[in-house]
Amino acid sequence: MNLIRVLDAVDPRICAFRDVKERDLTGRQGLFVAEGEVVLRVLVSAASRCEPVAVLIAEKRLEALRDILECLPEDVPVYTAPQDVLDGIAGFHLHRGILALGRKPGAPALEDFLEGMPDRAVLVGACGIGNHDNMGGLFRNAAAFGAAGLLLDTTCCDPFYRKAIRVSVGAALRTPFVEGVTAAAMVEALQARDFEVLALTPSAAETLAQLKPAPRTAILLGSEGPGLPAEVIARCRPLAIRMSGGFDSLNVATTSAVALHHLTRAAETPWGA
Amino acid sequence: MNLIRVLDAVDPRICAFRDVKERDLTGRQGLFVAEGEVVLRVLVSAASRCEPVAVLIAEKRLEALRDILECLPEDVPVYTAPQDVLDGIAGFHLHRGILALGRKPGAPALEDFLEGMPDRAVLVGACGIGNHDNMGGLFRNAAAFGAAGLLLDTTCCDPFYRKAIRVSVGAALRTPFVEGVTAAAMVEALQARDFEVLALTPSAAETLAQLKPAPRTAILLGSEGPGLPAEVIARCRPLAIRMSGGFDSLNVATTSAVALHHLTRAAETPWGA
């Protein structure tokens, strides 16, 4: 372990960690900052698609986390500081006591991303998801139900934003995704690869529970409030989650879990695999 | 509409709204404060179990919300103030521009609550849910899927906390619940009323997808991390949501939605009602 003690919040070696909250908003040239033990464990795991660049950790947490820190490559510095110095670096009280700096993986092109998909696969397409909690929730649920990846349209927020990573419990660092495609291009490319594209919308006549899923299926989710654009829905198979009269409102990440459970449970139901 | 203009943040008539954040933590003698248009619409609706006591609203929002405000009884004052005075009263920038003071409904006894349940019903039992986002999510999902009510054990947080109400999109104000019972008493009372009690736990051998639900079913959910106590699980039918290898982690509110969708979709599946 490449351990380096830091005693000054303005030490130039840890400048990448400074003022974390403000810098969340400006980007970091291909790097991201993640926080907490759960996320650090994912970052150093074999499943991670991201490289660790540096770690900053409270002195008092060092012993308890030694097993993770020893998995880091020797060229990744582990900066350690007293809690008050750490708080001064981050710009707020960092009660989890861990920050990790990582490098984002290269973004695949849409065609390359779809090229590698297996014959049986579920994908999650997200349109206009601007809330980092919801983005993190989508990644968490995609990972939990074994989705092969996510497609984020041009109006989605960054899944490498600190809060999105935290809410994803690290799934943002391991689940493959493409970004920066329009919803129309996403639907067209999926259908060209024999994915049945299901547009989740409360206005649909057919319900999720009635669906027998195709081997390759993608679910398309819009933002809460406006939902998916009508012209996108028109090109897909629209599907509703049946809800109780007078209260048809589910969170978008919750919707993804309900749909993914239905799609991935097919092997367990009477209709078989 | 009983409209009263307020020009001073320390006006004694609006003292119930002062320093909202701090007072969230101390309780309000049977009253609660809710925020935002969506929640206010639920509070004044016929479905609400709570009485509105007073409303405080930004002057600039008055016209747009006139249709809701005119539904209020004449004895409920509608205080209105410029945005800066409103912020001074609340103690933070109240960008939604609406606060409502309401009275909690009387808490039913466990036996009375169960006495009124129909022959076909789904209930949600929550044990140790201390996070207000999760509590709000449980209420939102219970309402969305038409659950007949919730049971909160002694270690759950208050669903009338401002953030829980907001996340519930008002469901906390309309969905019946009991609170302050132990998990053991909850399970015993449910089973005595012919409810099959399903303990959601990743350790179960049987999966949710395999379950054909009984007419009366209750799902029991523990907090993230520790989950349900082993002695509680032992008295129920344990059930897992099958997840992808290496990432068996769902948020507790999300878990409720997945389970409620499965239970309430029974009427739509091949096995019939």
Tell me what the structure shows:
- The structure is a homodimer of 273-residue chains.
- The first copy, chain A, has helices spanning 20-24, 37-44, 66-69, 83-90, 110-115, 132-144, 162-167, 183-192, 230-233, 252-264; strands at 2-5, 31-35, 51-58, 77-81, 98-103, 121-127, 149-153, 177-181, 196-200, 216-222, 237-239.
- The first copy, chain A, is of the alpha/beta class.
- Chain A has a 6-stranded parallel β-sheet with strand order 8-7-6-10-9-11, with helices on both faces.
- In chain A, helix 7 (162-167) links the parallel strand 7 and strand 8 (177-181).
- Chain A is elongated and about 60 Å long.
- The model of chain A is unreliable at 269-273 (pLDDT under 50).
- Chains A, B: Residues 124-261 form the tRNA/rRNA methyltransferase SpoU type domain.
- Chains A, B: It comes from Brevundimonas pondensis.
- Chains A, B: InterPro entries: Alpha/beta_knot_MTases, Ribosomal_eL30-like_sf, rRNA_Methyltransferase, SpoU_MeTrfase, tRNA_m1G_MTases_N.
Task: Give the arrangement of secondary structure elements.
The structure is a homodimer of 273-residue chains.
Chain A lengths: L1 E4 L14 H5 L6 E5 L1 H8 L6 E8 L7 H4 L7 E5 L1 H8 L7 E6 L6 H6 L5 E7 L4 H13 L4 E5 L8 H6 L9 E5 L1 H10 L3 E5 L15 E7 L7 H4 L3 E3 L12 H13 L9
Parallel strand pairs in A: 1-4, 3-4, 6-7, 6-10, 7-8, 9-10, 9-11
Antiparallel strand pairs in A: 2-5, 3-5
Helix pairs in contact in A: 6-10
Number of helices of chain A: 10
Work out the radius of gyration of chain A. Answer: 21 Å
Biggest interface and which pair forms it? A-B, 37 and 37 residues
Model regions low in confidence, pLDDT < 50 over at least 5 residues of chain A = 269-273
Helix content of chain A: 25-40%
Strand order of the largest sheet of chain A: 8-7-6-10-9-11
- By helix and strand content of chain A, what is the structural category? alpha/beta
Q: Looking at the structure, what is the overall shape of chain A?
A: elongated
CATH architecture of the largest domain in chain A: 3-Layer(aba) Sandwich
What is the total tally of β strands of chain A?
A: 11
Distance between the termini of chain A: 48 Å
CATH superfamily of the largest domain in chain A: SPOUT methyltransferase, trefoil knot domain
Summarize model confidence as the mean pLDDT of chain A.
Answer: 91
Strand content of chain A: 15-25%
Identify the CATH class of the largest domain in chain A: Alpha Beta
Work out the count of structural domains of chain A: 2
Subunit organisation of the chains: homodimer
The major sheet of chain A is characterized as: 6 strands, parallel
